[in-house]
Amino acid sequence: TGRPSIAPEKLLRALLLQVLYTVRSERLLMEQLQYNLLFRWFVGLSLDDPVWDVTVFTKNRERLLRGDVAEAFFQRVLDVAWAEQLLSDEHFSVDGTLIQAWAGQKSFVRKGTTPPPPDDPGNPTVNFHGEKRTNATHASITDSDALLYKKAKGHEAKLSYLGHVLIEHRHGLVVNSRLTRATGRAEWEAAWAMAKEIPGRRRATLGADKHYDDRDFVECLRTLNVTPHVAQKDITALDARTTRHSGYGVSQRFRKRVEEVFGWL
After folding, report:
1. Which residues are paired to 95 by β-bridges?
2. What percent of the chain is predicted at pLDDT more than 70?
3. Domain 86-100+162-263's class?
4. Residue from 196, 211, 191 nearest 93 by CA
């Protein structure tokens, strides 16, 4: 198109604003940059600078993420926090949350079939009443990685991904994160992978809710020199060697702060 690219530092600042102020779309973000002086100042746009076209912003954002610039930015923030001694290297908590995919239920069709031409391209009529639809037999034609998933019994199943974060207990700062497909074991697998990357050789603790009270997960943590401080189910994988210590109760109180992170999303 001949339009100039966006400087990476300005793009990162704009993405931070979108998350921190819960701006629902990139089009709305560009609209905010038109008139919000605080946003313009933070991003680095003068009063006379034109706001970027939304399609240019989207393409530059995708290029930024493919180049792992966002991950490098996150790591640099962590380096500063470590240097300022703001992070704990002993006590952590983990949790996961459902992230709804940008794919509608109407895109979830039986595998190996070609849907008929839509009667209305913007909002086609699809009748799947009475049809049993599962991830084994169906897939989204607009986002093939998204899976049908529900967080708890009685909730509606939606095409989704799972987001996972690891926080430390000194100031509740995020030190690791993952985005995975929404499979039944994804939360345990992501938590184990992030626990494996906890720096240092000292024994660490990992707080979590009852979903993580799984015998295989608990045993895997112990092999990493990480003590599982997970909330207990009626039939639990923990025993008194863990729960009798006062630190277990402290972890149970602090682990709830991980939910504050998801409140920003």
Report:
1. 165
2. 91
3. alpha beta
4. 191
